[in-house]
Design brief:
It is a single chain. Helix 3 crosses helix 10. The protein starts with 15 loop residues before the first helix and ends with a helix. The chain has one domain. It is mainly alpha-helical. Helices cover 65% and strands 0% of the residues.
């Protein structure tokens, strides 16, 4: 690989495929949660050859794509701008991006959970543990405790404590939030040496420490994020052979299929590195699914990710009360597929509303905070 001068700052617009992956990943998470709520599943030994099981389980790999893309866009930007890095503008940008949607999402969670509790305090969706396990192992009503409130408002759900109520999907934001600030702390002290390899020394040390402390899953998520960051550096500074990028695609596909049969965590880590390897090559001729739909849908992908779960659970609650959704779930049929389609459409509609009201105002909030 030949080193050359970096190009202009990389954005999602430079890689239209990232728009496709962003909204499709968010959609897979939403669809997977809806399927886990609606369909019957043999939890003692689900068939890994069942297309429904495979589709529903894609919500795990979809989150992995989010980690890598976040590292590519945010972590890679830190490395590219290390010499002129400004903590104030960076922190404001990260805060604006997360909290412009997070606060309204928390209010939505409280509104829908509260309405369900007011209608039926003994509902098995909120007061019990749903048999499929898609709602977690603890009743939703028990998650309204002080430590969960603190973790949710600090955007540390999943790390400090569980997210409040039906905020299950907020767990990954806790990791993102920590990565946003730990990564610059690790790499910036060595930035004056103008080396892209020296920052790997403290990074590897932290990853090793996490593994030694029994936090291997946290280390793997951080490694995925870092892989995305360095993929952008390679993309900007080196001529990665085309065949190597496509080898990354092959590795990612094999890891994705293998995750249905083997232990998922090593497969997910391999999936992340394969995807990062693909992102490290120049996107010559790279295309998304559709320019007409990809960008508008990608622009509401964050809103879709953080709002779909409380909405889907509340819709499931209404269907259960009406007698259409038994706790044991449903088989594949007209009714269950109609439920799945309805929940998916409703999730996108709510995400569009959140996008219009909040997410598209991210830059306005950032500029306002900078003006303070």
């Amino acid at each position: 690989m030949h080193r050359r001068e970096p190009l202009r700052e990389r954005t999602v617009a430079d890689r239209p495929l990232l728009d496709t992956i962003r909204w499709m990943s968010a959609a897979l998470v939403a669809i997977g949660h809806a399927m886990g709520l609606i369909f019957t599943r043999n939890m003692a030994g689900p068939s890994r050859l069942d297309p429904l099981d495979f589709l529903g389980d894609l919500r795990g790999p979809a989150v992995i794509f989010f980690f890598v893309i976040s590292g590519y866009l945010v972590g890679g930007g830190v490395l590219e701008r290390a010499q002129g890095f400004r903590w104030k503008s960076y922190a404001i940008a990260r805060f604006s991006r997360i909290y412009i949607v997070l606060i309204p999402a928390i209010l939505l969670i409280c509104l829908l959970d509260g309405a369900a509790h007011w209608i039926d305090p003994a509902s098995p969706l909120y007061a019990g543990v749903w048999p499929s396990g898609v709602l977690g192992t603890e009743p939703i009503d028990t998650r309204y405790v002080p430590i969960n409130w603190v973790a949710t408002f600090l955007s540390l759900g999943g790390l400090l404590a569980a997210p409040v109520g039906t905020g299950n999907a907020l767990w990954s934001l806790g990791y993102e939030w920590v990565f946003y600030f730990v990564f610059p702390l690790l790499v910036l002290p060595l930035a004056r040496f103008r080396s892209l390899l020296l920052p790997l020394i403290p990074i590897v040390a932290v990853l090793a420490l996490l593994v030694a402390c029994g936090r291997a899953i946290d280390a793997s998520f951080f490694a995925m994020w870092i892989a995305g960051a360095y993929a952008r550096v390679l993309n900007d500074h080196a001529d990665v052979p085309r065949w190597l990028g496509w080898a990354g695609v092959l590795i990612a596909m094999v890891a994705l299929i293998a995750s249905q049969f083997l232990k998922p965590n090593p497969c997910f880590l391999t999936l992340a590195f394969g995807f990062a390897l693909y992102l490290s090559r120049r996107p010559a001729g790279e295309r998304g699914l559709s320019r007409r739909f990809d960008r508008p849908l990608a622009d509401i992908s964050y809103s879709l990710y953080v709002t779909h779960f409380p909405l889907i659970i509340f819709l499931g609650f209404l269907l259960h009360r009406a007698g259409y959704l038994p706790t044991a779930g449903l088989g594949v049929g007209v009714l269950s597929l109609a439920m799945l389609a309805g929940m998916t459409v409703a999730s996108f509609a709510l995400a569009w509303l959140f996008g219009r009201l909040f997410e598209q105002r991210t830059d306005s909030l950032r500029k306002w905070l900078s003006g303070l």
